[in-house]
Amino acid sequence: MIRRAGDDQLEDRTLWITAREIAVAKRDQELAEREELLQLRERALDARSEADDARAEREHLLGQVRAANEKLVTAIVEAEQLADEANAARAQADHNEERFRSLVYTSSAIVWQATSSGRVQVDRDAWRRFTGVDPGAGDWGWLEAVHANDQGRVRDAWAEAVATATPYSCQHQIRARAGGYASVVARAVPIPATGTVREWIGMITDVTDRVRVEQARELFIGILGHDLRNPLSAILMGVELLGDLAGPEASIVARIARSANRIEVMIRDLLDFARGRLAGGIPVAPRRCDLRALCNEAVAEMTQAHPERAIRFEAHGHLHGQWDPDRVEQVVSNLIGNAIAHGVGAIGLVACDEGDEVVITVHNEGAAIPAAMLATLFEPFTARDLGGAPAKRVGLGLGLYIASEIVHAHGGTISVDSAEGTGTTFTLRLPRAVRPRQRTTTQRDLVLGPSS
After folding, report:
1. Whose CB among 71, 181, 280, 367 lies 3.0–4.6 Å from 173's, allowing a Cys bridge?
2. DSSP classification of residue 192
3. Pairing of strands 181-191, 120-122
4. φ and ψ at 186, to 5 degrees?
5. Whole-prediction pTM value?
6. H-helix segments, 107-134
7. Do 428 and 400 touch, CB atoms closer than 8 A?
8. Are 190 and 200 in contact (CB under 8 A)?
9. Exposure letters 33-57 (e unless 16+ CB within 10 A, then b)
10. What secondary structure letter does DSSP report for 187?
11. pLDDT tens digits for 229-286?
């Protein structure tokens, strides 16, 4: 068969096209396989990245677990230490409680509690051991053991402390197991001390021996001062009768007179002290008087007794009021004498009208009173050096105490201010009419003679 040239060309073209198509298909397949390889590679990379992230997260979690384990171990160790400390503290607290109970038992004291509303709860055994009786029934049953004369005062003091949430302190008498009554001091504090009160803790302490010693001492002082007045009056009368003597005898009589006057001042102070401590306070007899005239008389008297010292008196405003003139003059003379004994230079006395009150100041130059003495300056029998000139011991250390008692009996106040460079100033504030002084403790009555 004879093939034509056109047929050959067509066949070659067909073969070429077929071969090309095969090549294209092969290329496409290779491209597809390459694309698939690329995708597989990307997936492998993603998987590796995820594996790395998972590994890092695992390491992070392992680190957290290790840290948590360390903290747990530390917490366990600390908990064991705290438990040991708590057990030791509990054992110490039990030991302290035992010691405290023993101390309370041996010190004749009663520890008691009260609710926030003030309902008192006492240990019945301790109460019976102290008082010899059981506490009565009801919220105020414990009050039955208190002396009848003190029950109202104790009830009012406790009610006021509960109402105001302030510490309670009251001295009174209570039944004693041995019979009769014992003197005690009852104290209690709110817990917590500030804010809402949760409960009260208190203690009743037997102070019978101390009270008896104080009463005996003060009674002795009162009786001594009172009984010395009669022989002293005879001495003063004898001095007056011998006043006309001349020559050497006159100086002896004058010396006797000065000594007798000093004794008289001491006796007066002893009697005033006894009245202040045993008879409910120094008595005052207020009446209409002029403070300007009282101060003038006190200045004239002290100037005559101490002509070497200058005493300057200033008066301002209306100075009339209801006071005990003898007692007020006694206070002013006492303060001027104190300034003479312990100060230097001129003494300033000033009386000023301040409306409902009259203010008196006594000032002297000299060294300041030590700060440690200021707190007890008005306590009795506290002989002290107040600075300035050397003090002459002419008293018993009762002057400032008596002055404060007289001022308080008038319902007034007395204070002191002392500093280096400015001297010392005593300040009295007297209301124009006497305000009765409120006493917090009862005192036994003592019959004393009139003040001299």
Report:
1. 181
2. S
3. unpaired
4. -105, 130
5. 0.48
6. 124-131
7. no
8. yes
9. eeeeeeeeeeeeeeeeeeeeeeeee
10. E
11. 667 777 778 877 787 777 777 888 777 877 777 777 777 777 766 666 655 667 788 9
